[in-house]
Design a protein that fits this description.
CATH superfamily: Aldolase class I
CATH topology: TIM Barrel
Helix content: 40-55%
Oligomer: single chain
Strand content: 15-25%
Number of helices: 8
Structural class: alpha/beta
Distance between the termini: 32 Å
Number of domains: 1
Order of helices and strands: HEHEEHEHEHEHEHH
Strand order of the largest sheet: 1-2-3-4-5-6-7
Length: 179
């Protein structure tokens, strides 16, 4: 069982396929494999960055959203934001949801302090669409995110490093039930 399949089988609601170093053709081939792997599970596949491809669900950095705002074939579009101003802009461009971060210190952003829950509160109050928090989220801090206004969470490194991603997802879901 591949890591992606273990995450999908473990109860992830969505899997955002983020592989920034691949060419469009390489990404397309990988996307097809991930779709096949995820098919038996309820995890929704969302594709990252390749706005020009014909994917129904995409997640984009804000600059890519700006350049592709006229794409009408998307069923769902998410956007990564790092400020309340970016959140407002992404909502105005038509984003369905936002991922705001990084909230806590994370290995993905070594040496950079997390923006904290006050940042998350500011972003959540700035827009009407759902905000998902990312960055350094664990079962020890997940309960803080709901009170800040987050509707969900995103994990990356921990899902890829954890020996038992299924149990990690279960523990995070349990922490989120307190929401």
């Amino acid at each position: 069982m591949t890591r992606v399949e273990r995450v999908a089988a473990g109860g992830a609601d969505r899997i955002i396929l983020r592989e920034k170093d691949l060419s469009a053709d390489e990404y397309r081939r990988l996307a097809e494999q991930v779709l096949d792997v995820c098919m038996p599970y309820p995890a929704e596949c969302i594709f990252h960055s390749f706005a020009e491809a014909d994917y129904p669900r995409v997640h984009l950095p804000l600059p890519v959203m700006r350049n592709n705002v006229r794409k009408k074939h998307w069923q769902t579009v998410g956007v990564s934001v790092h400020s309340a101003e970016e959140a407002c802009e992404a909502e105005a461009w038509g984003a369905d949801y936002l991922v705001a971060g990084h909230i806590f210190a994370t290995d993905c952003k070594q040496g950079l302090a997390g923006r904290g829950t006050d940042f998350l509160i500011e972003v959540c109050h700035a827009v009407r669409i759902p905000i998902h928090a990312i960055g350094g989220i664990s079962e020890k801090n997940v309960h803080l995110l709901s009170t800040a206004g987050a509707k969900g969470i995103c994990i990356m490194s921990s899902a890829m490093r954890e020996n038992d991603p299924e149990q990690l997802i279960k523990r995070l879901h349990e922490g989120m039930k307190m929401w």
